[in-house]
Design a protein that fits this description.
By secondary structure, the chain is of the alpha/beta class. It has nine helices and 13 strands. The strands form four sheets. A seven-stranded mixed sheet has the order 7-6-5-8-9-13-12, sandwiched between helices. A two-stranded parallel sheet has the order 1-4. The mean pLDDT is 93. The protein binds S-adenosylmethionine (SAM).
């Protein structure tokens, strides 16, 4: 059995808590088994190709490998030597492949397509969330690919500004707005006093509608305080609206706006 030295976890900002070896845990606050349970990630991933977007320490990627995935690719912005990813990779003798890159640039030509995509703790950090969701769809396998989503949501506290801010924390307000998709935009440190990296707090309806608009059937799975989980199954085609009913869908415009990947071009039907 591998012995893990006492200083093994030093020098890394551990966000995830995961059992590396029996009784030995990465010292983070985000419990991997609980997140996987809340989102309904299958216990058996035998034979699946898995993509972990925004992997940070990589514990979700290694957990998928442990669950039998045939191949796991982790895509994240960080240097994997600095986040502990490489450290764990060596310890576990893992076959997970790390690609340093962005959700905005996910490409089936470069990465292939995936049966299972993890999109945990990333959505609200994105300045261009719909672009990322379009790209996720682009790397979903055929008609079977699924995205498991875990994210901050705003419906328990819309963080209204001004003297009526308390209203945004009431059950009545939450119920009134619950069916309406809303993206609450945050200033730096508005959501979290130590973290300026949060751009949007969608409510659950907004998460579902955003994924539906990109060609997924997205179901709500779980809500705990300001975190929610969803499961989005890829549909055969993106909706007609994306393919032909917007300015961006015009065949010439697709290249200009970087949406060449959208698939078959139908005759555009928007007003010029
Ligand atoms: C809060 S951490 C979440 C880490 C992990 N998925 C989890 O749930 O514990 C946010 C992660 O999102 C990643 N991220 C932020 N913007 C991104 C982008 N445009 N493309 C890919 N990853 C991004 C960061 O690099 C970071 O790894």
């Amino acid at each position: 059995m591998t012995t893990i030295p006492a200083d093994y976890f030093d020098g890394v900002r551990w966000h995830q808590r995961w059992e590396v070896a029996p009784g030995v845990f990465t010292p983070g606050c985000n419990p991997v088994p609980r997140v996987c349970g809340n989102v309904g990630l299958p216990a058996d991933l035998t034979g699946k190709r898995v993509l972990d977007v925004g992997a940070w320490n990589g514990c979700f990627s290694f957990e998928c490998e442990r669950r039998g995935a045939a191949e796991v690719v982790a895509v994240s912005l960080e240097d994997p030597e600095e986040t502990g990813f490489e450290r764990l990779h060596r310890l576990l003798n893992s076959r997970v492949r790390y690609v340093r890159g962005s959700a905005y640039a996910l490409s089936p030509d470069e990465l292939g397509t995936f049966d299972v995509i993890l999109f945990f703790g990333v959505l609200y950090h994105l300045r261009y969330p719909l672009l990322a969701i379009d790209r996720l769809r682009g790397v979903c396998r055929g008609e079977v690919g699924e995205v498991f989503i875990e994210t901050h949501v705003c419906e328990r506290d819309y963080r209204l500004r001004g003297p009526l801010a308390w209203l945004g924390r009431t059950r009545l307000f939450s119920r009134l707005l619950g069916a309406t998709p809303l993206w609450r935009q945050y200033r730096a440190y508005e959501l979290h006093p130590q973290d300026a990296s949060n751009w949007f707090g969608p409510n659950s309806a907004a998460v579902r509608e955003a994924f539906a608009s990109a060609g997924f059937d997205c179901e709500f799975v779980h809500l705990l305080e300001d975190r929610a989980s969803f499961r989005a199954k890829v549909q055969p085609e993106p909706p007609e609206r994306v393919l032909s009913q917007t300015y961006e869908a015009y065949p010439d415009n697709r290249r200009l706006v970087g949406l060449e990947h959208l698939g078959a071009t139908a005759e555009p039907r928007c007003h010029r």
